[in-house]
Write a structure and sequence with these properties.
Oligomer: single chain
Number of helices: 14
Distance between the termini: 9 Å
Shape: globular
Radius of gyration: 21 Å
Number of strands: 25
Bound molecules: ligand EPZ
Structural class: alpha/beta
Length: 423
Amino acid sequence: MDRFLVQGGRPLEGRVTISGAKNAALPAMAAALLTSERMVLHNVPRVRDIGTMRSLLDELGVDSSVTHDEVGNTLEIQAVRLLNSQAPYELVKQMRASILVLGPLLARFAEARVSLPGGCAIGARPVNLHLKGLEKLGATIDLEHGYIHARASRLKGAAFYFDTVSVTGTENLMMAAVLAEGETLLENAAREPEVEDLATLLVKMGARIEGMGTDCLRIHGVGALHGAEHRIIPDRIETGTFLTAAGVTGGRLILEHVEPAHVTAVMAKLEAAGVRIVPSGDHELIATGPQNLRAADVTTQEYPGFPTDMQAQYMALATQAQGSSVITETIFENRYLHALELVRMGADIQVEGRQAVVRGRTALSGAPVQASDLRASASLVLAALAASGETLIDRVYHIDRGYERIEEKLVKIGARIRRVLDD
Ligand code: EPZ
């Protein structure tokens, strides 16, 4: 497995191009199943999860082709017909977001078999709301041999309330409802920019959706959807990660191709910690790290609150802040695995249930550490950049899932990091 070797202690300086959002591209790719016409997606990030989703579409018999652009890829997808409507365990276990094909397969082809995604490092991550919502729309759902077997001759519009806000749950049900008969009301729906981007794409395909960007989506089913061309939104988590990198290394970074409106909670928190962030033009941010970071508490919340996907990265910064920062993770029950690795590098962190108290500033020293999940690995990279000495980060395939060639972007802004290929 690949590893990163990082020599820390140097401020990062320069320009970083932010890639398209993985978590917007994945549902957009699944949405291609809703039409027999050609779908063209621009600004798709070159990350592992996109490759996995292409393999899944290929498994279903759906053609896709990719062209490399200056930034990111353009994907062309056309789901004329299916070879089968099964998302196999081998692919789903690599990427839980495979569940996103369930709604569209059911809506267009009246049947789907998707392996039940297991839990993962950060929590149990059930999909009960996806299934309850589809049943409300008239689907028959059987769980057999670890697979979800869903059938529905024609889905019928209904009202569904999400007990818990679910990003992919909202996306799955939205994609099921656009071809259902009649009207669907999704209440307590997720408002993440990636959900809104999917709704924008579906409307371009001919869907009728009201309330985009709100927690109440009203969808009027239509007979069929046509192809569309769409540009994926910038990755707000990669944006937050590099803003944090400027803060934790005391450097100055210019981030381009960003959407500032999608990172307001992250910018507010980083500014409270002393990072200066100023917009320059509509899609550029300049972040300058201070000499001394200040402690600031954070609680993760659904959008537009501080995102859970930025909690691990913020924790790395909090270790370098003067004072105690109380971090509260409200979305996932086990999202502190990175804390134990940061402690091995010299951090002072006490985890009690959903809360972690970080006492700073502690000098971090390089050490061999292990990544456990996508955002934990980003946290370890940030800590390694701030540490003195050398850090060897194992299992960086986690980071490759959601960050496009992060070591190349980091080297360009002065980081001493290189990928060590395992023999
Ligand atoms: C999406 O996961 C993202 N993934 C995650 O990003 C992100 O952390 C998460 O939303 C929260 O923002 C993609 O978009 C591909 P949820 P998702 O359903 O949809 C509970 C990353 O780093 N829940 O919003 O799986 C669940 O257990 C990844 O890119 C149920 O109980 O998350 C969790 O506690 C990591 N039943 C909470 O809701 C359900 O049926 C939020 O989960 C569904 C969810």
